[in-house]
Amino acid sequence: MSEFKGIPILEAERPARSGEKYVTSQGFTAIKDGVKGRTSPPMRPTITATTNATTAVARKPKWLRAPLAAGKEYSAVKQIVREHRLSTVCEEAKCPNIGECWNAGTATIMLMGAVCTRACRFCAVDTGNPRGWLDAEEPENVARSVELMGLKYVVLTSVNRDDLGDGGAAHYAAAIRAIKRRNPGTAVEALTPDFQGVMRDVQTVLDSGLDVFAQNVETVERLTHPVRDPRAGYAQSIGVLRHAKTYRPTVLTKTSLMLGLGETDAEIHRTMLDLRDAAVDILTLGQYLRPTPNHLMVERFVAPEEFRRYRDLALSLGFLECVSGPLVRSSYRAEQALARNNAGLDNADPNDAGLNGAEPNGVAATDAAMNDPGADRGT
Asked: Cβ distance 100 to 359 under 8 Å?
């Protein structure tokens, strides 16, 4: 096998394995699953000795279960995704909820391809440099797909595209406008990159007619690095959210936190206060699950009753809603975010799979990245 700077390059006769470099159909190179393979033990975030941050993690608990990715509706959504050459964060980030969401006829569509210019240590989206490549037909393809699926609420997310002058903001806006033209009754949520903190690019998306603007802070300030790519930042994400609310006060703002990376209760509380200071409306909380052995390790599995306690805290601080549960991801049941019922989740019973309608004997969810780019979709 040939190598490039010590990274194995895929031979033509077989698919890339996790951590290998390969050549995409567009002709640029990328690393499968975003993080190159390693022979040394996987990196751990630096943690402090607290009652809720440990250095040893037991087997995955029973509440981390999800429905099978199968069924008539699942197959129908999958066919539409393939026919219109769409990328979905459901697949690319290995989301454990793909079966439930696709069987409900919904999907979170990932714009601008499946290769991210950043390499966050929690995310399973492939990493590379697309060198300006974009599918000019994607906005209309996405709009047609939304129409065929009959969606009343759609979430658009994307990889980070630092190779583009505007980070892909104009492409985002074109997709949102196309959806609104074809589907005027459909609400659109955009879970965007941070556009490197360039606020005029943030405004381009906000001017497109969207209903919800999301940008994921992902983790507490102390753990931002190495959890996120060096080009991402805690203050940068919060600054984008603050500017979005100031610029378009009627647009709901939203963010997401992964738990289980070594954060403390005090740090979670501090992050919530910082987000409320930026007037963020909606918060989602979910369990970090390691997508491959090359990614960051899980420091703890957060029990369902703890997620209930964190939700209560968030609501007491003034968030309009906090969707909180082990398998919650940024876009999970996004259309129910303002129903004020935790999107139907019941965190009171640890025997519950954590998902409404999931059977106790459902298959155990594979370790998966959070869906927010996504893909550090939201860095």
From this structure: no
Separation between Cα atoms, residue 354 and residue 302, nearest integer Å: 12
Listed in sequence order, the residues at least 6 apart from 341 whose beta carbon sits closer than 8 Å to its beta carbon are none
**pLDDT 10s digits, 95-128:** 666 766 666 656 678 899 889 999 999 988 899 9
Backbone angles phi, psi at 79, to 5 degrees: -65, -45
pTM for the full model? 0.80
Running DSSP on this structure, what letter comes out for residue 322? E
């965007």: which residue's tokens? 192
Record the tokens describing residue 369, joined without a space.
């990245």
* DSSP single-letter state for residue 348: S
Query: Can you say whether the dihedral through the CA atoms of 152, 253, 317, 371 is positive or negative?
Result: positive
Q: What is the pLDDT of residues 10-55, one digit of tens each?
A: 555 578 888 889 898 888 888 988 788 765 555 565 544 344 444 4
User: Quick check: 365 and 121 in contact, CB under 8 A?
Assistant: no
* Rounded alpha-carbon distances, angstroms, from residue 104 to 9, 18, 212, 347, 351: 39, 30, 21, 21, 23
Torsion of CA 130, 108, 85, 22, to 10 degrees: 40
Q: Give the dihedral sign, CA 233/98/109/113.
A: positive
